TrEMBL record:
Topological relation to the membrane, as annotated: Multi-pass membrane protein
Main localization (coarse): membrane
Name recorded for this polypeptide: MFS transporter
Entry-linked Pfam families: MFS_1
Keywords per UniProt: Membrane, Transmembrane, Transmembrane helix, Transport
Subcellular localization(s) per the UniProt record: Cell membrane
Amino acid sequence: MRISDLTKGKKKYVALALLFVGWLLSFLDRMVMNIAVIPIKEEFNLDPSMVGIILSSFFISYACMQIPGGWLADKIGSRKLVIFAIAFWSLFTIFSGLAWSLASLVIIRILFGIGEGFYPSASQKGISEFFPKNERSKASSTMMSSNFFGAALGPLIAAPLIVWLGWRHMFVAIGVVGFLLVAAFWFFYRPAAQTEKIEVKKKETNKVPLKNLLNNSGIWKIVVMWFAAGIINWGFSSWMPIYLVETRNLDILSVGLIASVPALLGGFATILSGILLNKYFINTEKYYAAGGMLLTTVFLYLMIISDSMVAVVIYWNLVFIFKSFVFSVAFSLPHQLLPKEAIGTGMGMVNTGAQAAGFIAPIVMGFIISATGSYDTAFFFLVACGILSTIAALSITKKDRKVSPQNAEIAME
């Protein structure tokens, strides 16, 4: 093996590590709000519907930026966009600690969401720039497992920092870490010059019209599947900490510890899920996703009807483990359906579904809780979404078509 090949191999894993850490920070920065909103709720005297607005405000801009972010990633490459995104969202993470009212906090969180909205598609574009096609699904699953680890770190870091520093200084401290990561990307994240030249040439000769992606039934089914799964994901993440404090009478440090475990298990499950998907479920991904979501829905229902706190925690963990099946399919299957030239935009479409769910879930659940006074009713809303996600996964057929630069229709196996 040539030295240049070894250097290239090392470079792609350095890039993957940086993208992984970028996702960790991204999730940490957004997830700490789910813990911080407990003291914020008291300081600003907010009811559940107002809390839902705060938790949802980030997602309205985050969702809106997915497709534009994907288009921009395809146009300029991942490096510039990743660096800009992290710097932008870190700035508004700091500003979150300076909020003086409900309105100011909502506006800051919307602007924060714009910065984070560029990162998902840019990171997936980075995978396509550094890894050959046969390695991208595994690399993508490994990178996206960071979402669960970031979700685990959120409560673990936020709870003690809030007790130690207060919620305002917590946001400032985490924002500073973001700018340190910007420096790391600046110095160590560099796609090969030759790759960049090839990319430019391909963009000139192999363009994928947006209308081709919008007309692709397979991608839209993945969008719906991931949207409904996202309702469960963000509904849980947003409201479980408050539920445990107000209904199960736990203190904020205990909530931080308990809330980190399901996300941590989900991260390891995602890595394992990606391996199983690539090894045993090629061309049968829909059954893998549907089976995982069906089990997720069953364990969610069992959690709702359980009186025991131990049972609630066990079922909560199982929900996150089996939800990882859908997660792996949602971020791996598009790499098989789409050409490299369309990965950024295609992933933007898929992630728009999940982030639209991030906007809808907290606010809908907040209004349900305000209207009924019942957390159980709000959680049954998540059960219905689990059923929808299962149906969407099963609806993917061989007749669904994928997009190619030459606009040829190739059946999805």
